[in-house]
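Now for today's protein.

===
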Amino acid sequence: MSVYTKTPLRLSFFGGGSDYVEFFHQNEGAILGSSIDKYIYIYQLPMSNFSPKKYKLSWRKTEEVNDIRDIEHPVVRAALEDLNWNQPINIATMSDLPGGTGLGSSSAFTVGFLKLINHMIQNDVDKLSLAKDAWRIEHDLLNENVGVQDQLHASFGGLSLYRLNGSRVIIEPIQTSNTFKKLLNDSLILVYTGITRHASEVVKDQVKNTRNKLNIANIQELVKISIEAAEKLSSIKDDEVLLKEMGKMLHEGWKLKKTFSDKITNSDINDIYEKGLSLGAYGGKLCGAGGGGFVMFLTSQNSKKDFIDYFGSENVLDISLTNQGSEIYTI
């Protein structure tokens, strides 16, 4: 019998930048986002008795080695070394979308892999511990410039506000009506910039600016928008009014986000964003750390065809918000 993990990617609406320890260890952070219906799948496969090597991994490449230290995949190597792993393992990975597109795929992989190996050793890890351990692997062991929101979204799933202060994480699931959730899903659209990038490199300049207190005030303003958005999602009962208000707040948040570093956006991304507004979007933002990936828009359902006609169906992605975090399944 084999098992696999199915771990969602995420969409960050508000508060990105406040989820870095350089900020929330001295200020309150708040991020609002959701898991989406695009996933990373990690399979534990049976190991053949005739396999020439002890460890086999299939991702962008296939690796077969006898020593964990020789594994090229950094997360797999670091996680197995951290656990002093010594039993054979055969892992295969698939993804609905390519990495480097601003939807949290790197951390989704880490969360999914840690959930899988904890299942293999019969360790029933809770969701918060899973998210924190994934962040520790990426930040402390691999020295990546990562925040904590991607791991939280991948582990918990659902539409939530995460409030961060020092070592404390407060999770506030957002309750909305079924009619608004449907309207929101129908209104979400992602436009691909054609650029993939390694988020840790893009965010390096932003983190430096945060450490030097050059962007603290604007991040604090984004935190206020995150908390305000969560309140409006729970209080405004007119779905159309709420959708337009969310679009307006996304637009304000994007203007703030662009000030964090000069590496977040470029002329191509700005052109896509401005065109999206001209096609009828209520607002939007670039997904993830910046530099490429997808631009998210909230738009009327009547405008979606215009987006597809202008940008091309191959560059437009429909998504829906989901409720589930990383899960184990049996084959």
The chain has a mean pLDDT of 92. The two ends are 6 Å apart (CA to CA).
